[in-house]
Design goal:
This protein is of the alpha+beta class. The protein contains 3 helices and 3 strands. A hairpin with a 2-residue loop joins strand 1 and strand 2. Helix 1 packs antiparallel against helix 2 and helix 2 runs antiparallel to helix 3.
């Protein structure tokens, strides 16, 4: 006789289309399998590219001869790109990587001063 299915479908904190599965008869906890919509993936890819571009611009502005005003502007754009990426992750109920969170905290302080 076939074992009853242990799959739950539906919305959850991991996104719109989440599948929770449990392997066989083990006592392993339910494991989320994230399935982002194409628009969510496209948004994250676009924002990640904007963040990388802004980071490259900061690196370029740090090379001699550097202009303090242009460097400040590049840093501001980088912070804004990081904030947009962080907010997109949160809106899709995805975790914010610790490195992104820490870098953003540091850059916010640098831009303020």
């Amino acid at each position: 006789m076939a074992e009853p299915s242990r799959v739950a479908h539906g919305p959850s904190r991991w996104g719109d289309d989440t599948v929770l599965t449990q392997a066989g008869a083990t006592s392993a906890p339910l494991v989320p399998e994230r399935r982002l919509s194409l628009s969510g993936r496209a948004l994250l890819a676009e924002l990640h590219e904007a963040m990388a571009t802004a980071q490259a611009e900061v690196a370029a502005q740090r090379r001699p001869p550097s202009d303090a005003n242009l460097l400040a502007i590049a840093r501001s754009h980088h912070v804004l790109a990081m904030i947009a990426y962080e907010e997109a992750l949160k809106s899709l109920h995805l975790p914010v990587p610790p490195r992104l969170r820490d870098d953003l905290r540091l850059l916010r302080r640098v831009v303020r001063n």
